[in-house]
Design goal:
It is a single chain. Helix 2 (about 115-120) packs antiparallel against helix 3 (about 125-140). The chain is about 25% helix and about 25% strand. The chain has 3 helices and 6 strands. With about 150 residues, the protein is of the alpha+beta class. The protein has a 3-stranded mixed beta sheet with strand order 1-5-4, with helices on both faces. It has a 3-stranded antiparallel beta sheet with strand order 3-2-6. The chain has one domain (about 1-140): Nucleoside Triphosphate Pyrophosphohydrolase (Alpha-Beta Complex).
Amino acid sequence: MVIHTDDLQVLVLRRTDVGSWQSVTGSKDAWDEPFATTAAREVAEETGLDVNAPAHRLMDWHLENHYAIYPAYLHRYAPGVSHNTERVFSLCVPRNSAIVLSPHEHTDHRWLPWQEAADCVFSASNARAIESLPWRWAQAQAGSLPSMSGPAA
């Protein structure tokens, strides 16, 4: 989830476990949980933001990245799972949005220009998503990438 403002300031979060910076991430609670439901829940858990709040614009980029899980994180997955698939979303929020971090997951947050945010995140797929934000946001503004309407479900 790339959380940003309309002037492309991107929210990055510092992880409690290794101290690296990242966007909101998370996993489905159930195999059949819709991606948008997962995205909304993870945003709320990690930042306190509600994707359905007025002036918030959630977009499913319909982009999935497949990658090998870092060996240090394999213990978080079921035995035999070695690869992961992530679905990319963005959420545009007002500049003054209050962030309430989950202390179990993150110790700090920053709003950075998209270029700086892309440079500081640990994950290569996270950096690529942030780097494509200007193009995605321009497409959304032009009506080529519709925002999701109604509750995230």
